[in-house]
Amino acid sequence: MFFLFLIASFYGCQTSSPKTITFADNVVVAHRGAWKQKNLPQNSIAALKHAINLGCTGSEFDVRMTSDNVLIVTHDADYHDLLIEESTYAQLSKFKLSNGETLPTLRDYIIAGMQNNNATGLVCEIKPSKTEGRNALMAENVLKLVKELKAENYILSYISFSYAILQRIKELDAHAKTQYLDGSKAPKRLKEDGITGLDYLVYKYKRRPEWIASAKEKGLILNAWTVNSTEDIDWFLANDFDYITTDEPELVFKRSEKSPTKRGYKLVWSDEFNYKGKPDSTKWAYDYGFLSNREKQYYTDSLKNARVENGTLIIEAHKEKIANAKYKSDEFKNKSWVQYIAEIDTAQYTSARLKTDGLASWKYGRIEVRAKLPRGVGLWPAIWMLGENRKEVGWPECGEIDIMEHVGFNPDSIFGTIHTKAFNHMKGTERGKKIFIDKPYETFHVFAVEWTHEKMDFILNDTVYNHIKNEHKTIAEWPFDQEFYLIMNVSVGGMLGGQKGIDDSVFPQQMVVDYVRVFQQKEE
């Protein structure tokens, strides 16, 4: 009890104020410093200095303790074949880092991190020990050193795979920011136990995306490790994480500049397809049968035609008769049984058309889809939107936004188009433009529209290729001040797709969708 009193007294009083720092306004935490681009040793002071020079919000590093209780900065449990917990610092420091640095002590590392630094916080990971009592001792010694160096304000957060270490830190310093690394505890538990944030591996969040909203609702810090691919970086930016821990800080800075969140957009709806089987019925409905444009495919809800696997949505067209056709109320609604059977008998191709009609719709925003397209003459994939009032006023009065259309006989182009009562393909007045697309069948591309009351921008990856202004005439020209729902499909043949015939040798063909994201700004 007396020992605990002494510790509490030590951490509760200060002889002078700690130094101050204002952390940079970005999400970038350099993982073990910014080491990769300059080929620096991980966890080196040089890598820390480079993170500071880049202006990262944080620089993460790993702390272990030697047999003589010296705190050092290194990742692995052994160093040059010496177990750290069983070796003295004198033994370990004989081996230099690859750039000639001496193996850094935590003292030297923190001092270096406080020099010429007014923006980069230190993210201190305390590596757990299997030796009884050692975890608590490490936590106590780390905080004692931080206090001695007056570096409290330089610590962005303490992180660990050991829950006990984080809890001990909170006992010693109620103001310390702590983030759990293991990924096994829900935000509710962290909040109850006084842990201030999550710092989980990428796939943990994708497996439990509901934890993101829960953490935000509870005011917990959101961090992720180790986020290195463009796709993952964009996902965490879209989900408005507080921090992104990465081996690629330069790339995160670059993607941050291009992210919709940089321009005030917030993610309001998405499907990342991180599940298996049928598309999520709370997000997607189906169209059935023969529909329009003299297309040759029969739309179904079969797993053969629409399914989620390997983190993607697959919409697949087949050259086939419909086997074991089942009655669907939506199919049969406006048809006689004779007509329904006749369609089944005449269908030569199957595919799928998914829509958010009745489930989700939006007025203005940025709608983006990352996808690979199907290959072959006669294929006509599309990502598009219709006005919610279509059933009342019909087409084209409801308006149509073609975010992306592609036809197989024109393999190096995509089209972005609007259709309205005044501007539509039946009159030859539709307002559309095309852009060259490289490797649409082998490579994922981002197809997007940014839509406000004043304009519509059609975007391939980061390039705006069709800009349409609202001329403020009548609803015949601009029926776009209402909610629209999203549609994705692969058609076969038809008025546009079938202009050069259908190559039956290419089937089956897939449109593979990595994600669908809808962003809106506050005023929208």
Describe this protein with a few key phrases.
single chain, ConA-like_dom_sf, 15 helices, 524 residues, Family 16 glycosylhydrolase, GP_PDE_dom, alpha/beta, Glycosyl_Hydrlase_16, hydrolase activity, hydrolyzing O-glycosyl compounds
Structure report:
The chain is of the alpha/beta class and 524 residues long. Helix content is 23%, strand content 29%. The chain contains 15 helices and 28 strands. The strands form 4 sheets. Strands 12, 14, 15, 16, 17, 19, 24, 25, 26 and 28 form a 10-stranded mixed beta sheet that branches. Strands 1, 2, 3, 6, 7, 8, 9, 10 and 11 form a 9-stranded mixed beta sheet that branches. The protein has a 7-stranded antiparallel beta sheet with strand order 13-18-27-20-21-22-23. A hairpin with a 2-residue loop joins strand 25 and strand 26 (463-469). Helix 5 crosses helix 6 and helix 10 (230-238) packs across helix 11 (249-258). The radius of gyration is 29 Å and the shape is elongated. The N and C termini lie far apart (59 Å). Residues 1-15 have low confidence and may be disordered.
Tell me the major beta sheet: 10 strands, mixed
The mean pLDDT is: 93
What fraction strand?
25-35%
If you compute it from the alpha carbons, what radius of gyration comes out, rounded to the nearest whole angstrom?
29 Å
Low-confidence stretches: 1-15
Distance between the termini: 59 Å
The counted number of beta strands is 28
Q: What is the molecular shape? A: elongated
Classify the helix fraction into a percent range.
10-25%
Structural class: alpha/beta
Number of helices: 15
Family: Belongs to the glycosyl hydrolase 16 family.
GO molecular function, one term: hydrolase activity, hydrolyzing O-glycosyl compounds
Domain GP-PDE: 26-256
Protein name: Family 16 glycosylhydrolase
